[in-house]
Amino acid sequence: MSKVRIAVDCMGGDNAPTEIVKGCVEALKTGDDTLVLVGKSGIINSELSKYKYDKERIEIVDAPEVIENDEIPTNAIRRKKNSSMVLGLNLVKEGKANAFISAGNTGALLAGATVIVGRIKGVERPCLATLIPTEKGPSLLMDVGANTDCKPNYIVQFAKMGSVYFENVMGVKNPKVGIVNIGVEEEKGNLMTREAHKLLNETDLNFIGNAEARDLLTHVADVLVCDGFVGNIILKFGEGMATTLFRMVKNSLMSSFIAKIGAVLCLKPIKALVKTMDYSEVGGAPFLGLTSLVVKAHGASNAKAIVGAVNQCRSFIEKDIVNKIQKKFKLGLDK
Amino acid sequence: MSKVRIAVDCMGGDNAPTEIVKGCVEALKTGDDTLVLVGKSGIINSELSKYKYDKERIEIVDAPEVIENDEIPTNAIRRKKNSSMVLGLNLVKEGKANAFISAGNTGALLAGATVIVGRIKGVERPCLATLIPTEKGPSLLMDVGANTDCKPNYIVQFAKMGSVYFENVMGVKNPKVGIVNIGVEEEKGNLMTREAHKLLNETDLNFIGNAEARDLLTHVADVLVCDGFVGNIILKFGEGMATTLFRMVKNSLMSSFIAKIGAVLCLKPIKALVKTMDYSEVGGAPFLGLTSLVVKAHGASNAKAIVGAVNQCRSFIEKDIVNKIQKKFKLGLDK
Fold first, then answer.
1. Chain B hits for A187, Cβ within 8 Å
2. Do the Cβ atoms of A259 and B265 come within 8 Å?
3. How is B258-324 classified by DSSP, letter by letter?
4. How far, in Å, CA of A225 to CA of B315, rounded?
5. How far apart are CA B76 and CA B267, in angstroms?
6. So what's the ipTM on this one?
7. pTM of structure
């Protein structure tokens, strides 16, 4: 039995517990780690009974409470000590798991992770990072929602953490860092981005300057930094636009008999394309800057997305990202 | 000869002067107004000589200087008194034209318009508004780049101006107003949007609350307000994403012989779809809150986009939007 243990919140997300548990069972097919399923044990056992799997590699931690999506994050974390989310975060804090994945209440997970798991020394604000698909492979966009109001120095710290992650997990030496902005010229942007731009110029990062929003999907940089409000807007608008456009393409193809014949012939490559742009293929969003790994999976996660998130955790743990970020900040590079 | 006079900067934009002049000539085919072409008269005359048109309806104002795209806005406006942009704005200020359209340096146009044309009394910050195509007709997104840092009250003023515009130009009584945000719940957002949300609740506008970025293209509201940084990010990211996705669809359709046959059959409806999503069809971005009309056309404007912008000016002038905004602010509704 491997020593690596990944905890999964089986009660969070639109498709919990069915898809979450299914994803855990499927994730066993790769790797040799132990998955710790956190949630109402009766429900988890009942879901597990649908499958054949290696019982040695699944553990259950019973959590009688559930944090719902509409609860106020800090209150929920404080009051529901026996929720799957709080118990999962405790497992990570106490070293009983190497990572925790949840598709539940984002605000509660971020608040809980910061309070329970804790920040790496020197990191002012942990942030959520997401790989976004582009024409030339994924870019890492961060922050995508943990910090809606940012000081320029937070952005610099995001860039440092993102560089460590991208270099080690994606295997790109000295990754290019860009700051999301509304023009390529240095003087473009708002007060915050202009100041952050200056600070980024003074670091040892491979800073390429402003990444114009228009160019984000052409892989203008490996790591794209911005405040959590802007990052979340980009992520959500991108999701909405992809959904809308594909629906429009489909309807448009169905609009005439001739096009309908064409559509049947086109369907396969279009489906392949949708897969390329599918965020759930890429996994969850790691919360960088904590002393251990916490991953936010999409609220609409299905089994496939959970498998993606588990694989992401494996890679993150194997590459020892937490220690590498810690080292980067210890070296006094966080000026 | 109609009394309405629309001035057009023939020297600004990537395709100036050829496409701009061509667009002006084409715009003569509709309406009965006079177009005032501002720029180097030799060049304009040489472009005009390519076409047959009603010479009574074209006037030329010679402007020996040109403001380039890389010039610092305020300096350019101050120093180049004989540029097409400054002379065009002066025409509007002096009442010699009812509107001015430019596809040139955005920053210079905004700075020049505020300084030369001037704000409506009570309006703290004029803002750029753009119609964005959605599945159910256009929504008006504003600010899309004039004010990168906004106080909550600016957002409320944008909403008021946008409502007047949408009600009168688009003919939608009591248009729905939403604030662009990262969640539907009232407490979601950054400091600025949360405060603006509260203020919007206190107005007599048809405020529907937060418009989540994911839903912007499903026509969640008629008027979508945000700061100019976020609005510009949405506009540019949307443009980039549409371009990228259509290129990917095309490449994907060309990837196999069978799909290629399909692609030929699909081409027509896909082209029709591209047209639906084509921002240049919708016209330019009016700069709302000034004592007269100034329209920023896209830097990449072709003749078709110029025709769109001229038509937009006609509608704006006919509906007397400036006076209606003035009235809204005079009534003391700008609390």
1. 72
2. yes
3. HHHHHHHHHHHHHHHHHHHT-HHHH--EEEETBSSEEEE--TT--HHHHHHHHHHHHHHHHTTHHHH
4. 41
5. 45
6. 0.90
7. 0.91
